[in-house]
Amino acid sequence: MMQDSMDDHPPSALDSFNAQLNSKVQQWLDWSTPHIMARWAVFGGLVCLYALRVWFINGWYIITYGLGIYLLNNFIGFLSPLADPESDGLDIPTTMGEAEDLSGKPFGRKLSEFKFWCASARAVCISFFMTFFEMFNIPVFWPILLLYFIALFVLTMKRQIKHMIKHKYVPWTGGKKKYKGGPAATKLSK
Fold this sequence. Notes:
Elements: H1 2-7, H2 13-32, H3 36-57, H4 61-79, H5 85-88, H6 96-101, H7 113-130, H8 142-166, H9 183-189
C-alpha cells in the first residue's frame, strides 16, 4: 500500500527532461544506423575539432593520451572475433562455404561497427568536455606520451595482424556481392 502512494507522484521536471532527451538521442541514433559514411564523417569532424582545441589551448595531453588508448582498445575489439579460437578451440569461418559448415555463422565481432562508432564518438565528446576544466590539465611531457602511444599502437597491431594471419580471417568485407547475370539470365529477362 505504501508503494502505491509513492508511484502516484507525477514525474519531476528533471525526469521529464531526461526522458525527452533520451528519446531524442535514441531517435537520432536510430536514424543514423544505416548512414555509415555520414556517421564516420561526423566522427572525423569531432576528432578534428577536439585536436584543434587541444592544439590551440596547448594542454590536456593526458586526456588525449587516455582517449587514444580507449580508441585503440575499441579498434582492437572491432577487429577481434567474437569467439577467440586460441582460448575456445574454435575455427573462424574464412569463406562462405566454411561459414555454412560451421552452423551457418559468419564472422562475428567482439564489438559491432555501430557500437564501435557510438562508443568512440561518445569518448571524443567527453574528452572535449573535459578540456574545459583546468583540474584535468595535468602537466606532462607530451612527446614521451606520443612515443609511448605509437609504440603501443605498433605492438598491438602487430599482435592483432599475426592473430588474423594465424587463424586466416579478415574482419571486414567489401559488402554484399553483386551478381551479374550470365547468358541464361539475359534470355530469361527478355
